[in-house]
TrEMBL record:
Residues 111-269 form the Amidohydrolase-related domain. GO terms for molecular function: carboxy-lyase activity; hydrolase activity. The lineage of its organism: Bacteria, Pseudomonadati, Bacteroidota, Cytophagia, Cytophagales. It comes from the Bacteria. GO terms for biological process: secondary metabolic process. It holds the Pfam family Amidohydro_2. SUPFAM superfamilies: Metallo-dependent hydrolases (SSF51556). Gene3D superfamilies: Metal-dependent hydrolases (3.20.20.140). One of its GO terms (cellular component) is cytoplasm. Keywords: Hydrolase, Lyase. This is Amidohydrolase. It comes from Pontibacter indicus.
Length: 275
Protein backbone atom coordinates (compact mmCIF):
# COMPACT_ATOMS: atom_id res chain seq x y z
CA UNK A 1 0.00 0.00 0.00
CA UNK A 2 1.44 3.37 -0.94
CA UNK A 3 1.24 6.29 1.40
CA UNK A 4 -1.43 7.90 -0.76
CA UNK A 5 -3.50 4.68 -0.75
CA UNK A 6 -3.22 4.62 3.00
CA UNK A 7 -4.58 8.13 3.39
CA UNK A 8 -7.29 7.56 0.81
CA UNK A 9 -8.28 4.36 2.56
CA UNK A 10 -8.49 6.06 5.93
CA UNK A 11 -10.48 8.93 4.34
CA UNK A 12 -8.74 11.33 6.65
CA UNK A 13 -10.27 14.79 6.55
CA UNK A 14 -7.64 17.50 6.24
CA UNK A 15 -7.93 21.28 6.64
CA UNK A 16 -4.63 22.81 5.42
CA UNK A 17 -4.41 26.21 7.09
CA UNK A 18 -1.16 27.26 5.45
CA UNK A 19 -1.09 27.28 1.69
CA UNK A 20 0.35 29.57 -0.99
CA UNK A 21 -0.13 29.74 -4.75
CA UNK A 22 1.77 27.89 -7.44
CA UNK A 23 2.11 28.27 -11.19
CA UNK A 24 -0.20 25.30 -11.67
CA UNK A 25 -3.13 25.63 -9.26
CA UNK A 26 -5.08 22.72 -10.83
CA UNK A 27 -2.29 20.21 -10.22
CA UNK A 28 -1.78 21.54 -6.70
CA UNK A 29 -5.48 21.29 -5.90
CA UNK A 30 -5.69 17.75 -7.28
CA UNK A 31 -2.75 16.54 -5.16
CA UNK A 32 -4.23 18.12 -2.04
CA UNK A 33 -7.66 16.70 -2.71
CA UNK A 34 -6.24 13.21 -3.21
CA UNK A 35 -4.57 13.45 0.18
CA UNK A 36 -7.87 14.31 1.85
CA UNK A 37 -7.83 18.12 1.91
CA UNK A 38 -11.40 19.47 1.81
CA UNK A 39 -10.61 22.98 3.03
CA UNK A 40 -7.54 25.22 2.85
CA UNK A 41 -6.51 28.73 3.81
CA UNK A 42 -4.54 30.23 0.95
CA UNK A 43 -2.58 33.44 0.67
CA UNK A 44 -0.61 34.51 -2.35
CA UNK A 45 -0.32 37.48 -4.71
CA UNK A 46 -3.68 39.18 -5.10
CA UNK A 47 -3.91 38.35 -8.81
CA UNK A 48 -2.98 34.67 -8.36
CA UNK A 49 -5.35 34.51 -5.42
CA UNK A 50 -8.23 34.98 -7.84
CA UNK A 51 -7.46 31.78 -9.71
CA UNK A 52 -8.31 29.88 -6.53
CA UNK A 53 -11.83 31.30 -6.33
CA UNK A 54 -13.32 28.94 -8.90
CA UNK A 55 -12.37 25.55 -7.50
CA UNK A 56 -15.30 23.66 -6.08
CA UNK A 57 -13.51 20.52 -4.87
CA UNK A 58 -11.66 22.35 -2.11
CA UNK A 59 -13.26 25.06 -0.01
CA UNK A 60 -10.68 27.88 -0.05
CA UNK A 61 -10.46 30.58 2.56
CA UNK A 62 -8.68 33.60 1.15
CA UNK A 63 -5.99 35.49 3.02
CA UNK A 64 -4.26 38.79 2.47
CA UNK A 65 -0.46 38.93 2.68
CA UNK A 66 1.18 42.12 3.90
CA UNK A 67 3.29 44.14 4.45
CA UNK A 68 5.23 43.44 1.24
CA UNK A 69 8.82 44.69 0.95
CA UNK A 70 9.07 46.65 -2.31
CA UNK A 71 5.48 45.57 -3.02
CA UNK A 72 6.56 41.97 -3.69
CA UNK A 73 5.58 38.56 -2.30
CA UNK A 74 8.71 36.94 -0.77
CA UNK A 75 10.28 34.18 -2.89
CA UNK A 76 7.94 34.40 -5.90
CA UNK A 77 8.51 38.16 -6.08
CA UNK A 78 5.13 38.60 -7.72
CA UNK A 79 3.36 41.90 -7.13
CA UNK A 80 1.61 41.57 -3.78
CA UNK A 81 -1.50 43.59 -4.64
CA UNK A 82 -1.15 46.96 -6.36
CA UNK A 83 2.62 47.35 -6.07
CA UNK A 84 2.28 49.14 -2.74
CA UNK A 85 3.92 47.77 0.39
CA UNK A 86 0.77 48.22 2.47
CA UNK A 87 -2.79 47.75 1.21
CA UNK A 88 -5.04 50.72 1.88
CA UNK A 89 -7.28 50.09 4.86
CA UNK A 90 -10.38 51.22 2.98
CA UNK A 91 -9.62 48.83 0.09
CA UNK A 92 -9.15 45.99 2.56
CA UNK A 93 -12.47 46.75 4.21
CA UNK A 94 -14.18 46.80 0.79
CA UNK A 95 -12.74 43.38 -0.02
CA UNK A 96 -13.89 42.00 3.32
CA UNK A 97 -17.40 43.28 2.64
CA UNK A 98 -17.32 41.62 -0.79
CA UNK A 99 -16.29 38.40 0.99
CA UNK A 100 -12.96 38.28 -0.84
CA UNK A 101 -10.82 38.23 2.30
CA UNK A 102 -11.48 35.62 5.00
CA UNK A 103 -8.37 36.18 7.11
CA UNK A 104 -5.23 38.33 7.32
CA UNK A 105 -2.05 36.41 6.63
CA UNK A 106 0.49 35.51 6.04
CA UNK A 107 1.52 38.61 7.96
CA UNK A 108 5.04 39.30 6.69
CA UNK A 109 6.27 41.68 9.37
CA UNK A 110 9.47 39.68 9.86
CA UNK A 111 10.31 39.91 6.15
CA UNK A 112 9.54 43.63 6.34
CA UNK A 113 11.84 44.00 9.36
CA UNK A 114 9.28 45.06 11.98
CA UNK A 115 7.64 43.53 15.05
CA UNK A 116 4.15 41.97 14.82
CA UNK A 117 3.26 44.51 17.51
CA UNK A 118 4.37 47.51 15.41
CA UNK A 119 1.69 50.20 15.43
CA UNK A 120 1.75 50.26 11.61
CA UNK A 121 -0.26 47.03 11.83
CA UNK A 122 -2.86 48.31 14.31
CA UNK A 123 -5.39 49.62 11.74
CA UNK A 124 -5.49 46.13 10.20
CA UNK A 125 -5.83 44.39 13.56
CA UNK A 126 -8.70 46.76 14.34
CA UNK A 127 -10.36 45.72 11.08
CA UNK A 128 -9.78 42.02 11.80
CA UNK A 129 -11.46 42.46 15.16
CA UNK A 130 -14.39 44.35 13.63
CA UNK A 131 -15.10 41.53 11.16
CA UNK A 132 -13.99 38.64 13.40
CA UNK A 133 -11.20 37.60 11.00
CA UNK A 134 -8.27 35.42 12.09
CA UNK A 135 -4.75 36.82 11.75
CA UNK A 136 -1.88 34.44 10.87
CA UNK A 137 1.59 35.76 11.65
CA UNK A 138 4.77 34.31 10.18
CA UNK A 139 7.32 33.34 12.84
CA UNK A 140 10.63 31.48 13.01
CA UNK A 141 13.17 31.87 10.24
CA UNK A 142 13.06 31.91 6.45
CA UNK A 143 14.29 29.95 3.48
CA UNK A 144 17.02 31.24 1.16
CA UNK A 145 16.40 33.80 -1.59
CA UNK A 146 13.29 35.40 -0.15
CA UNK A 147 14.22 38.73 -1.72
CA UNK A 148 13.21 40.85 1.29
CA UNK A 149 16.18 43.15 2.04
CA UNK A 150 15.00 44.18 5.52
CA UNK A 151 14.30 40.68 6.85
CA UNK A 152 15.29 40.41 10.53
CA UNK A 153 15.64 37.04 12.22
CA UNK A 154 14.88 38.43 15.69
CA UNK A 155 11.49 39.71 14.48
CA UNK A 156 10.35 36.08 14.16
CA UNK A 157 10.22 35.58 17.92
CA UNK A 158 6.61 34.98 19.08
CA UNK A 159 7.32 36.81 22.36
CA UNK A 160 7.02 39.98 20.27
CA UNK A 161 3.27 39.28 20.13
CA UNK A 162 2.88 40.31 23.77
CA UNK A 163 2.11 44.01 23.22
CA UNK A 164 -0.28 43.14 20.39
CA UNK A 165 -2.12 40.58 22.51
CA UNK A 166 -2.48 42.94 25.43
CA UNK A 167 -3.78 45.70 23.16
CA UNK A 168 -6.10 43.40 21.16
CA UNK A 169 -6.93 40.63 23.64
CA UNK A 170 -9.92 39.37 21.62
CA UNK A 171 -8.07 39.08 18.30
CA UNK A 172 -7.95 35.57 16.78
CA UNK A 173 -4.20 35.15 16.27
CA UNK A 174 -2.31 32.14 15.02
CA UNK A 175 1.43 31.70 15.21
CA UNK A 176 2.51 30.26 11.87
CA UNK A 177 5.20 27.56 11.75
CA UNK A 178 4.87 27.05 15.54
CA UNK A 179 7.66 29.58 16.00
CA UNK A 180 10.10 26.98 14.60
CA UNK A 181 13.34 27.59 16.52
CA UNK A 182 11.32 29.74 18.93
CA UNK A 183 8.81 26.98 19.68
CA UNK A 184 9.28 27.26 23.44
CA UNK A 185 8.39 30.95 23.18
CA UNK A 186 5.28 29.92 21.20
CA UNK A 187 4.30 27.55 23.99
CA UNK A 188 4.71 30.24 26.62
CA UNK A 189 2.61 32.73 24.60
CA UNK A 190 -0.11 30.12 24.07
CA UNK A 191 -0.14 29.18 27.73
CA UNK A 192 -0.60 32.83 28.67
CA UNK A 193 -3.20 33.52 25.96
CA UNK A 194 -5.95 30.95 25.57
CA UNK A 195 -7.13 32.37 22.25
CA UNK A 196 -3.85 31.93 20.38
CA UNK A 197 -3.49 28.98 17.98
CA UNK A 198 -0.53 27.72 15.95
CA UNK A 199 0.18 25.76 12.77
CA UNK A 200 2.75 23.06 12.11
CA UNK A 201 3.76 24.10 8.58
CA UNK A 202 7.52 23.89 7.89
CA UNK A 203 8.31 22.12 11.20
CA UNK A 204 6.38 19.07 9.90
CA UNK A 205 8.12 19.08 6.52
CA UNK A 206 10.91 16.47 6.60
CA UNK A 207 12.56 18.18 3.60
CA UNK A 208 13.25 21.17 5.88
CA UNK A 209 13.12 20.00 9.52
CA UNK A 210 14.41 16.56 10.62
CA UNK A 211 11.72 14.16 11.85
CA UNK A 212 13.27 13.90 15.34
CA UNK A 213 13.07 17.64 15.78
CA UNK A 214 9.43 17.71 14.66
CA UNK A 215 8.73 14.97 17.16
CA UNK A 216 10.45 16.92 19.96
CA UNK A 217 8.45 20.05 19.17
CA UNK A 218 5.12 18.21 18.95
CA UNK A 219 5.78 16.39 22.20
CA UNK A 220 6.48 19.73 23.87
CA UNK A 221 3.16 21.17 22.61
CA UNK A 222 1.23 18.13 23.83
CA UNK A 223 3.00 18.06 27.17
CA UNK A 224 2.05 21.72 27.58
CA UNK A 225 -1.61 20.77 27.10
CA UNK A 226 -2.04 22.55 23.77
CA UNK A 227 -3.53 19.76 21.65
CA UNK A 228 -6.73 21.76 21.07
CA UNK A 229 -4.90 24.67 19.44
CA UNK A 230 -2.46 23.10 16.96
CA UNK A 231 -3.48 23.14 13.29
CA UNK A 232 -2.26 21.26 10.23
CA UNK A 233 -0.47 23.18 7.46
CA UNK A 234 1.87 22.33 4.60
CA UNK A 235 3.16 25.71 3.37
CA UNK A 236 3.27 24.02 -0.08
CA UNK A 237 5.48 21.18 1.19
CA UNK A 238 4.81 17.70 -0.17
CA UNK A 239 1.60 16.86 1.66
CA UNK A 240 2.22 13.13 1.67
CA UNK A 241 5.57 13.61 3.35
CA UNK A 242 3.97 15.94 5.87
CA UNK A 243 1.15 13.49 6.60
CA UNK A 244 3.69 10.72 6.96
CA UNK A 245 5.62 12.83 9.47
CA UNK A 246 2.45 13.27 11.54
CA UNK A 247 1.46 9.62 11.26
CA UNK A 248 4.96 8.66 12.45
CA UNK A 249 4.40 10.37 15.81
CA UNK A 250 3.53 7.31 17.83
CA UNK A 251 2.48 9.32 20.89
CA UNK A 252 -0.44 10.94 18.99
CA UNK A 253 -3.80 9.27 19.52
CA UNK A 254 -6.36 9.11 16.69
CA UNK A 255 -8.47 11.66 18.53
CA UNK A 256 -5.48 14.03 18.76
CA UNK A 257 -4.79 13.54 15.06
CA UNK A 258 -8.36 14.49 14.17
CA UNK A 259 -7.98 17.66 16.22
CA UNK A 260 -4.75 18.47 14.42
CA UNK A 261 -6.01 17.57 10.93
CA UNK A 262 -9.21 19.63 10.97
CA UNK A 263 -11.19 19.99 14.19
CA UNK A 264 -9.04 22.71 15.76
CA UNK A 265 -8.95 24.67 12.50
CA UNK A 266 -12.72 24.40 12.05
CA UNK A 267 -13.19 25.94 15.48
CA UNK A 268 -10.57 28.63 14.93
CA UNK A 269 -11.89 29.74 11.54
CA UNK A 270 -15.56 29.48 12.48
CA UNK A 271 -17.32 32.78 11.81
CA UNK A 272 -19.73 32.16 14.64
CA UNK A 273 -16.90 31.58 17.11
CA UNK A 274 -16.52 34.96 18.78
CA UNK A 275 -14.00 35.42 21.51
ZN1 LIG B 1 5.76 31.71 6.76
Amino acid sequence: MTLLDRFEASAQKIFDVHLHGTENPSAQVLALQKAGVYKAAISTSWSLQNSYRDFSNINFLHGLMFPCANGKVPYSLQTCFTGEEWPSVSWVEQQIKKKRIDYFGEILNQYYGISPSDSLLFPYYTLALKYNLPVGIHTGGAGPDHGSPNFRMEMGNPLLLKPLLSRFPKLKVWIMHSGDQYYQETISIMQENELVYTDISVISNPDIVPAERFSTIMKAFLDAGLEDRIMFGTDNGDILKVLNAVESLDFLSNAQKRKLYYQNAERFFSKSEKH
